Amino acid sequence: MPCFTKKTNNTQQALTKHKMDYEMESLKEQISHYYTEYRYQIEDVSNKIHSNPELSEEETFACDTQCQLLEQWQFKVERNYKGLDTAFNATFGEGHPNVCIMSEYDALPEIGHGCGHNLITGVALGTGIVLKKLLTENSIPGRVTIMGTPAEEKRGCKIDLIKAGALEDVDLVMMAHPSDDRTSQSTVTSGLMQYLVNFEGRTSHAAVAPEKGLNALDAVRLLFNGVDAWRQQLPESCRIHGIILDGGKSPNIIPDTSQADFYLRSFDMDYLLAMKKRFRNIAKGAALMTDTRVNFEEVANSYKPGKPNDVLNKAFIELAKEFGMNPEWTEPFRGSSDFGDVTYEVPAMHAYFNITDQYKDAVIHSKDFAQCAASPFAYRQMGKTSRILAQIGHTYFTKSEFRNSVKRSFPFV
Ligand SMILES: [Zn+2]
User: Distance between CA atoms of 196 and 177, rounded to whole angstroms?
Assistant: First the structure.
């Protein structure tokens, strides 16, 4: 009876699909219900952090405010995490999987929350509390962690946390950043190295005894010329930009010192290391031409290029469509983040959610963007993103096929 068997199979498939759709819908409802329950507290913390902007490594208020709420929610909170004053680690549950959501909360000088990190905090709290509720109400084994990571704008403390072993017991990391562009997946980001280049010459009177001087400003000018000539041969995936921090004290004194500050960026780590070698050679050449001495200071922390996880990205884009966020797959991001280093340690996702809506001129790192970061639209987007991340986290906890495919998509095992 082949025909009958086929019909039965079709019916079973339809029933299975129906059951899965039903489960998915009820999961979505459950997540929305939990988020709504805590929405006021989450938005309140985000708003308070927005109104009290703190610079990198000075984020005591933001750190305390989050820790207090997490303690109230019965997370086990460790302050001064790994010896960093404004880092924290908050966990709920036991064993594995350990799903971690990262929070950032530093602001920019003069501009305040022009990068919208108060909303990253909101997503971390929102995702964390919903996952905690899902674990407890549905008796799901595992741990949810919210990790407070300071100073993204300045020194990149995620790298210090990684070096101190903060990710050794973590299976998955998620974070979401507000954007002035479309809602999008975690993109490739540029690796970054920063150098201070110091030239040392000899001072003398610029009019009376120029022949006795060794001009350190000339060395820095030649460094810039050398870099400009090199720039023509650099691939599109690289960037190099610098400024002069010290170019002398007065025109009538031959400068005996000069200093330049340079960023080198590339999407490729090997290429970035090759750039470093070439850059140093150009600086050495500038020193030779001027008979000055050169030394380099590598500024901590260098950032690795971010490597997205395709499985997590696809899950985010699909859910963002369902939530009406109009997402789009975007090109690699030319900027850099200390999250890049996280992507080398564990499967990780750094998604983006638009918060500017119709204010197209509000570019990130501006006062306009800071205003958008506390708007009702931004908080709605933050809420949707929290629910998406919670759903991805839930799938990771409960579906071994998903967990395995996320692991297979991690390139650094
Ligand atoms: Zn940022």
Answer: 29
User: Ligand 1 centre from 392 Cα, in Å?
Assistant: 22
Pairwise CA distance, residues 310 & 72, whole Å? 36
- Nearest to residue 272, comparing CAs of 280, 282, 264, 283? 264
Q: What are the pLDDT digits (tens) for 124-157?
A: 999 999 999 999 999 999 999 999 999 998 889 9
Q: Where are the domains of the chain?
A: 25-189+306-408, 191-303
Residue pLDDT, tens place only, 169-186: 999 999 999 999 999 999
Report the distance separating Cα 405 and Cα 257, nearest Å: 55
3-state SS assignment for residue 323: coil
Q: Give residue 396 CA to ligand 1 midpoint distance, Å.
A: 26
Q: CA angle, corner 22, sides to 21 and 28, nearest 5?
A: 90
* Topology (CATH) of 191-303: Alpha-Beta Plaits (3.30.70)
Cα 115 to averaged position of ligand 1 atoms, centre (Å) = 5
Whether pTM exceeds 0.85: yes
How far, in Å, is the centroid of ligand 1 from the Cα of 1?
63
What are the pLDDT digits (tens) for 171-224? 999 999 999 999 999 999 999 999 999 999 999 999 999 999 999 999 999 999
| CB-based neighbours (< 5 A) of ligand 1, an ion | 115
Q: Note the CATH architecture for domain 25-189+306-408.
A: 3-Layer(aba) Sandwich (3.40)
- Ligand 1 centroid to residue 120 C-alpha, Å: 9
